[in-house]
From TrEMBL:
GO MF annotation, one: nucleotide binding
PANTHER family attached to this UniProt entry: BILIVERDIN REDUCTASE A
InterPro entries: Gfo/Idh/MocA-like_OxRdtase_C, Gfo/Idh/MocA-like_OxRdtase_N, Gfo/Idh/MocA_Oxidoreductases, NAD(P)-bd_dom_sf
Source species of the chain: Paenibacillus uliginis N3/975
Protein name: Predicted dehydrogenase
Stated family: Belongs to the Gfo/Idh/MocA family.
Annotated ranges, domain Gfo/Idh/MocA-like oxidoreductase C-terminal: 133-325
Location of the Gfo/Idh/MocA-like oxidoreductase N-terminal domain: 1-119
Lineage, highest ranks first: Bacteria, Bacillati, Bacillota, Bacilli, Bacillales
Length: 331
């Protein structure tokens, strides 16, 4: 498959490294307005570097384009690529409004091309392992979960993150990972309640409670400005056990299941599935296989639209200080 990359920042470089070693894939061109970044990405995957993405498409004629631009630029580029008949793998979130995300999805459907949004957490071994454990009934019916995602404030590449009209803030850009995973785990969200505080230009903290139609509850925290290492944690509780994960503590799940006797209550370490490549490699490989085989992806464009809708509902709740039922303010 002939692939091109537009945007050679952190995620563009990640995809360049992975696609450059993926069997059956040729990265023919990479484009970035900053020539140095385009050159570095090109070297990583053996492609030709460009500053002009339109010239690149004319010359290398890819089948699929990986879009790694800032969020506020996703819609306009995706619509143009769809009109050209190109399949699209776009970084999350899909867009900053539900209307834009739906328009992107509709345009790709109209032009007969595939649209994949990179909600990569579904491909992280520990998260996928936890999902499988819940689905298998290991902890009984799961009714409560807690997700945490803390990282440094994204600076250095540009300051667009600080403009909420371009990034959407910590909920839309960071917490949306856990919003998507929680929806994958529990299904439809009935209502949300959220609070956001931004004590400085380089710090933003959010807390969200999602209530699901199934009766399950998920509490999420997202933090930009954390001084320590990037941290993810989750805890999923069921009627018969609990699953815990802390990226700073272990690289496998801690699964505790209730048994008949106290002497049998032991922690069972469930190791993460062994992987040769990182989750971003597995994610894009999966999307490429879906294009080749015409199969449905683990995360659909509809899932990505839903994540945007929920993130926007959370923002509205934070602004008003009131719970928001889904179907409320989502623009």
């Amino acid at each position: 498959m002939n692939i091109a990359i537009i945007g050679c920042g952190t995620m563009g470089m990640t995809h360049a490294h992975n696609l450059g070693k993926m069997p059956g894939v040729k990265v023919s061109g990479v484009a970035d307005l900053i020539q140095k970044r385009a050159d570095q990405a090109a070297e990583a995957c053996g492609a030709v570097p460009y500053k002009d993405w339109e010239l690149m498409l004319e010359q290398v004629k890819p089948d699929t384009v990986v879009v790694c631009l800032p969020t506020y630029l996703h819609k306009s580029l995706v619509l143009k690529l769809a009109e050209r008949g190109l399949h699209i793998i776009c970084e999350k979130p899909a867009a900053l409004t539900l209307e834009d995300a739906k328009e992107m999805k509709a345009a790709c459907s109209k032009h007969g091309v595939r649209l994949f949004i990179g909600h990569v957490v579904r491909f992280f071994p520990n998260y996928r392992n936890a999902f499988d454990q819940v689905r298998s009934g290991k902890i009984g019916e799961a009714k409560m979960a807690y997700f945490k995602r803390h990282g440094s404030y994204p600076i250095g590449v540009s300051f667009w993150y600080r403009d909420r009209s371009k990034s959407g803030g910590v909920i839309m850009d960071l917490m949306i990972h856990d919003i998507d995973f929680a929806c994958w785990l529990f299904g439809d969200v009935e209502s949300v309640y959220a609070s956001v505080t931004k004590p400085s230009l380089s710090m933003e903290y959010a807390q969200v409670t999602l209530k699901f139609s199934s009766g399950a509850i998920a509490n999420l925290t997202g933090f930009w400005g954390y001084a320590g290492p990037f941290t993810t944690q989750f805890e999923i509780s069921g009627k018969e056990g609990i699953i815990r994960f802390d990226s700073n503590q272990v690289q496998s799940l801690d699964l505790k299941v209730a048994t008949g006797g106290d002497d049998q209550k032991v922690a069972v370490q469930v190791p993460s599935s062994p992987t040769l490549h990182d989750p971003y490699y597995d994610e894009v490989k999966h999307f490429i296989e879906c294009i080749r085989e015409g199969s449905e992806p683990i995360v659909s464009a509809a899932d990505a639209c839903r994540a945007v809708e929920i993130a926007l509902a959370c923002e509205h709740s934070a602004q008003t200080g009131q719970p928001v039922r889904m179907g409320g303010i989502t623009s």
